[in-house]
Amino acid sequence: MLMDNEKKFSPWQQIDYNLVFILFLMFCVSCIAIYSAQQMAQYDQNFVVKQIIYYVVGGIAIVGVMFLDYDQYRRLSWYLYGLGIILLIGIIIAPLSLVPDINGARAWYRIGGFAFQPSEVMKVALIISLSNVIASHNEKYIIRTIREDLILIGKIALVTGVPFLLIMMQPDLGTGLVFIAIAGSLMLVSGVRWRLIFIITLIGILFIATLVWIYFTFPQFFIDYILRGKLYQLDRFYAWLDPEAHPDAGYNTLKAVLAVGSGELFGKGFLHGSVYIPEAQTDFIFSIIGEEWGFLGTSIVISLFFLLIYRMINVGLESNEAFGSYLCAGVIGWFTFQAFQNIGMNIQVMPITGIPLPFISYGGSAILACMIALGLVLNVRSRTRKYMFGSNQ
C-alpha cells in the first residue's frame, strides 16, 4: 500500500534537501577558500565570480538531469558512453591548436577562452553505462555461478578499460585512478563473489609489485616503455616519498604540508595566509583552508564530505530499483576516492596526481560533472516510492 495517493505522486516533492543544503555549504566553503587563494597570488581575474557562474550552470544542469526519469538514462547509456569515447579520441588526434600540450599532457579542448575537459563527462557516462551493464546482467542471470560472475567482471573490465586506456594516453593517471575507483565501487555492490574480488585485488597488488621490480631491475626499460619517457611522473613519486631531497618536484608538496601544518588548531584567520602555492585555487585548495582555518576548518570540510557520502548511501539503499542503487554506488566511489586522493596529497599521505577536490576546487568542467552526478543521485531519491507495508524493492 502506498503512503501517498498514486495519482498525486510527484518526484519534485521528494527532493533530498539535506543533499541540497550540504551542496550549498560546500559552495560557501569553495567561494571563501578561492577568494583567499586569488588574493594571496594577486591574480588579475576573479575566480570567485567564475566559480559562482559554474555553480549556477551546474544547478541548471541538476534541474535538467532531474526532469528525465533516471531509468531513461539507462536507455541512453551507450549513446552517452559513445559520445564520451569520441571526445577522448578527439583529445588524442586533434591538433595542438585545439588541444594544447600542458605540462606534458593533452587533456583539454581549448577554443578561445573556453576550456573543456572531456574526461569529466566520461566519469558520468561510465557510471551510467556500468550501472546498466550490471543491472542487465543480474536481470538475465538470476541464478549466479562463478561463470556468470566472471562474465560480469569481464564486462566491467571491458567497459572501463577502453576509456581508461584513452585517458592514460593523454596521459592523466589521476583521472585513470578515478575510473578504477568507480569500477571497483560498482563491482563491490554488483553481487560478484567476494573471493573473486579478493583475487582481483591480489592480482592488482602483484601487478604493482611487478612494476616496482621492473623499475629497480631494468630502470631504463621502465622509463622508455612504461613511462614512455614521461620522467615527471617518476619525479612526482620521489617528491611524495622525500620532498626535501627533491625540492623542485616536491615544491608543491612541501608548501602544502607547511600551509596545513602552520594553521594549527584554529588557523591564521581569513586572508592571513602567508604560504604561497601556485594555482592553489585548484588542486591545493585544501591547504588554503588548513592554513587560514586550521584543524577546525579542515575537519568541517571533511565532515561535509562524510555527510554527503552518508546521504548518498541512504539514497542508494532506499532505491526501488537496482539500477538506481548502482548509480549511487558509482557516484559514491567517485567522490570518495577523489576527495581522499586530493586531501591526501595536500598532507603528503598520497602522491600528487592533479585531481581537484569535488565541489570545492575551482574549475568549470569538474564542477559541472560533479553537479550532474549529484543530480543523478537526487533523481534516484526523488523517484523512490515510499510504501506503508513491505519492502521498497
List the helices and strands and how they pair.
Blueprint: H1 17-41, H2 47-67, H3 70-93, E1 109-111, E2 114-116, H4 118-140, H5 146-168, H6 173-188, H7 194-217, H8 219-226, H9 231-241, H10 251-262, H11 285-318, H12 322-346, H13 364-382
Antiparallel strand pairs: 1-2
Class from secondary-structure proportions? mainly alpha
Number of helices: 13
**Radius of gyration, whole Å:** 22 Å
Assembly of the depicted chains? single chain
Morphology call: globular
Most strands sheet = 2 strands, antiparallel
Give me the side-by-side strand order of the main sheet. Answer: 1-2
Query: How many strand elements?
Result: 2
State the distance separating the first and last CA atoms: 13 Å
What's the domain count? 1
Sheet-strand content, in percent, reads under 5%
The helix-strand sequence is HHHEEHHHHHHHHHH
> Helical amount among residues, as a percent range?
55-70%
In summary, what is this structure?
The protein is mainly α and 393 residues long. It has 13 helices and 2 strands.
Report on this model:
This protein has 13 helices and 2 strands, in the order H-H-H-E-E-H-H-H-H-H-H-H-H-H-H. It starts with 16 loop residues before the first helix and ends in an 11-residue tail after the last helix. It is 67% helix and 2% strand. Helix 4 packs parallel to helix 6 (173-188), helix 6 (173-188) packs across helix 12 (322-346) and helix 10 crosses helix 11 (285-318). Residues 1-7 have low confidence and may be disordered. It has a two-stranded antiparallel sheet with strand order 1-2. The protein has one domain.
